[in-house]
Amino acid sequence: MAKFVLAGKTDCPHYAKAELLADGLQRSLPNFTIHKISILPDDWKEWLEATCKRNGWKHEQSPLIWRELVDQGGKGMLLGGFSDFFEHCQDYYNITSDMPTDIMLSVAAENLVTKMNLIMEEQHRVSLIQPLQIWISSALSPACHLLIPNLLSAEVFPQVSAICLHLLDLEGNEEELQWLRMETEDLALPLLHQVVIHTDLEHAFQEADVILLLDEWLSDDNEDEDEEEKKRKVKGILDRYTEYGKLIDAGSKKEVKVIVSGGSFVNLRCSLLLSNARSIDSRCFVTMATQLENEARAIIAKKLKVRTSDITDVTVWGNISGSFYVDVQKAKVFNYDGAIKGPPFFSQPVLQVLHDRKWLETEFQDIVRRQRAAVVSKSCHRAAMSAANGILTVLKAWNGTSSPDKVLSVGVLCSGYYNLPDGIVLSVPVTFTDNKWAALFEVALGDELKERLQLFASELRQEQDLGSENCMIVMNKDEA
Q1: Among 82, 104, 113, 422, which residue is least crowded by beta carbons within 10 Å?
Q2: Torsion angle, CA of 6/12/17/19, rounded to 10 degrees?
């Protein structure tokens, strides 16, 4: 089989003549194939030099014609220009071309117009692709590595055709981010359009549709932490999240979805974003309590000897990374091996099968509080797998791929809810409908729970006041 490659400038008359001659041969000879490469005039010189250098050829004019050794493999065999191809066709196939000059010029002009139209069509096609812009901070954290493979899927983003992933890490180096970018691209995920890395905030959160903030302050679990250390930490959070909020306000889309994850000061971090991104609806911001929720489900499941997935509708109230209360008044258990049994869809209230109310109010609450600290001490980092799973759970509900009746515990701005003070971000039960969360008012709040909520709000207000105190100190230093 003879396979020839014809490459030339789109406006070259000799390329046009060689093209028509090759077309005639391909129609007449069953084993003769031709591959055409049409190059714009402005790009021809650079393309020709690169091709000749790669193959060890010397050629200066358009067209460039070579024969590919289909049966033998290896690099192609240079034939030359139009004259060389013309002589080859005469000698081997006894076929020639007597195309007049005016037709050559006409075909060359037509080639150029066709090439430009093809380029314009491709540019238009690309312009119609509007990738979903997802930003992840602290992209070198273990949670991000576990999150990426499952994040870019139709299960999480059902009506998205392409995703542009922005990996931001202010503490990491660019080389590590480049490796993460390459590893992400190697996954060959169908929705992945592009991966962009960032080591500073110059373009942070521009045109963002989804923002996942994984920043951490790991020493928060140290019970012996002194007041100065806590102030230093809050100052760092204040500076970063104030800037984050301003950048989100200035550059992100107004319907952006922002999820604050982590185990330290998550409610405070979310409130700082809300204070500095006032042009964006407060319902666009949530913090995750799904980790605590799932940990509580696992502890109850072990107690009742069922799977963790058999426990549903557990609620976490309060300060996610501080004082909180796990509420099981709406919790259900499936597949429980008790006096009353039913099909797989049959459930019973947890409070009907777990009669040890004292355990639920005391030891159970303490176990949940200690669970995450135990994971950190054994793994030397936050519960990354749990964090990644929690983010995916919230996103699926937010994007409508979960049941609209699914209740999740998330930290949201509670102004006007449950008689809480304004400006407080507190974990409460919510449902997601039409890409917005709504606080659940069907839960009965007893006097004890109402009192707890006020205490949680007071604790969060103290954190905010600590941040404000740091801000005033900085302002006074600047004035001095």
Answers
A1: 422
A2: 30
How far apart, in whole angstroms, are the C-alpha atoms of residue 335 and residue 328? 17
Strand partners, 68: 3
pLDDT tens, residue by residue, 316-367: 998 888 889 999 988 999 999 888 888 988 999 999 999 888 999 999 999 9
pTM: 0.72
**pLDDT at residue 222, as a whole number:** 47
Question: Quick one: pLDDT at residue 225?
Answer: 57
Amino acid letter at 58?
Answer: K
Residue segments in the chain with a per-residue pLDDT below the cut of 70: 1-2, 70-75, 98-99, 101, 104, 125-128, 217-227, 372-382, 442, 467-480
Each residue's pLDDT tens digit, 185-201:
999 999 999 999 999 99
Q: Give the per-residue pLDDT at 99.
A: 66
Backbone angles phi, psi at 69, to 5 degrees: -85, 85
Measured CA to CA, the distance from residue 367 to residue 358 in angstroms comes to 13
